[in-house]
Write a structure and sequence with these properties.
43% helix, mainly alpha
Length: 77
Amino acid sequence: MLLTPLLFACIIAAQPGADITPVEFERLHKDIRPRSGESSWAEIAWMYDLNKARKKAAAEGKPLCVWRMAGDPTAVC
C-alpha cells in the first residue's frame, strides 16, 4: 500500500525545527490523502441502529456485518 511509505517519508521529512513551505505542505497533504478506491469501507452506507439493520438485512435476504471497535472510523458517533 502506498500510504504507509508516504506517511513514513512525511514523518522523516518533518523533523522538529524543520520549516515546511506552503507548497511543500500542499504536496504532502495531497500525497497522504486516501485515493479513490483505497477506502472502500467509507463508501458503504453504514447503519447505526442494530434493530433497523437486522430488519433490513432480513427483508433483503442479505447477511449482517457487525463492526465493533473502539472509536468510530466514520466520525458519526
